[in-house]
Amino acid sequence: MKELDCVEVIVEKKTYAREGVHKGMQGWICDPRSLGGTWLVNFPQYGEKDDIAEIVVKEEDLRLVPQMDVKRNEQIKAQFGD
To answer: Are 45 and 51 in contact (CB under 8 A)?
Structure first.
């Protein structure tokens, strides 16, 4: 993985959920450095809305996706009432 790659969270974890990030949400790696097997990932929303979060995620909890679908993030967010 590298900076600007599009990724998807493949697990549901309390540490991510506390920040509003849930399994299936997609984001992009926003730092060129991987620290201890983790990446800083930004999880945006559609249009002018504030980002959901910018958090550190373990590489093992991510998978690469060819293209990000931020509307999907909003659908998942609505399911959790975040």
So the answer is: yes
Span 17-26, mean pLDDT?
Answer: 98
CATH number of the domain at 26, please: 2.30.30
User: Is residue 1 in some structural domain?
Assistant: no
Beta strands in 1-82 (DSSP E): 6-9, 26-29, 38-43, 53-58, 62-64
Is the entire prediction scored with pTM above 0.85?
yes
Q: What domain count does the chain have?
A: 1
Q: Which residues contact 1 (CB under 8 A, 6 or more apart)?
A: 7, 29, 34, 39, 59, 62, 64
What is the DSSP secondary structure assignment for residue 51, as one 8-state letter?
P
Q: Dihedral of CA 72/46/41/80: which sign?
A: negative
Amino acid sitting at position 37? G
